Amino acid sequence: MMRWRLSVAALSAFALIGQARAAGLSVTPILLEGSSGATASLTVRNGSNVPVNVEAKVMVMEQDGGRERLVPASRVVVSPPVAQLKPRQDYVFRAVRLGHDPVSAEEAYRVVVTELPNPVAGTGVNVALAHAVPLFFEPRNAKPAALSWHASVSRGRVTLTATNEGGRRARISNVKLSDGRSTIDFERGSLGYVLADATMSWVRPAKSLGAGPLRLTAESDGGPIDVRIDPDR
């Protein structure tokens, strides 16, 4: 029996495996947004020459203590939860927020689409491939993201922390931290989200960083970031 734990790191690994396959599942769009009572549609394509069984479910994105985790959602459901896709078939899954009460604060989810394993007799192959698509329900007139930054350097490592005091998530990418002589690339691509009213932290080796203030540069969906940080040491 296949057993696996759902985590952000695991989902990233599964997504990479899926991208590496010559033919497999593809999912569009890569970001879903909605309002209360709205339905968000996700198209899944089976690019292979054989039928595949697909499971879809919704997980709540939570950020606490600088870390992100996914827990099962009860407020948002996806229909259908399981489907079989024929070769080269496009299939639409729909995520629905239950109830009609207005969204009072931004709600963050991931729609996890998993290609269920189809083990071949005698091969021992039994792998689940997953895509995790962000889904956000936003209130009207939500305040934009408002990020503040903190860094601490200790025992050859630097911890970078972002706190979002705004009402909307911020997507961060291409994060660099420099002391004027050396630069640490936290991530050349997307570092992920900092949710509304939440804090995220990232740790990297920092033996090359000297004493003194640091300069943080990054990109966000709210524009470029360029701030000076006086780190704790």
Automatic annotation (TrEMBL):
Pfam families: PapD_N
Domain Pili assembly chaperone N-terminal: 28-141
InterPro entries attached to this UniProt entry: Ig-like_fold (IPR013783), PapD-like_sf (IPR008962), Periplasmic_pilus_chap (IPR050643), Pili_assmbl_chaperone_N (IPR016147)
Any one annotated GO CC term: outer membrane-bounded periplasmic space
Matching Gene3D superfamilies: Immunoglobulins (2.60.40.10)
GO annotation, biological process: cell wall organization
Keywords on record: Signal
Signal peptide (from-to): 1-22
Name of the featured protein: Pilus assembly protein
Species whose genome carries this gene: Alsobacter soli
Phylogenetic lineage: Bacteria, Pseudomonadati, Pseudomonadota, Alphaproteobacteria, Hyphomicrobiales
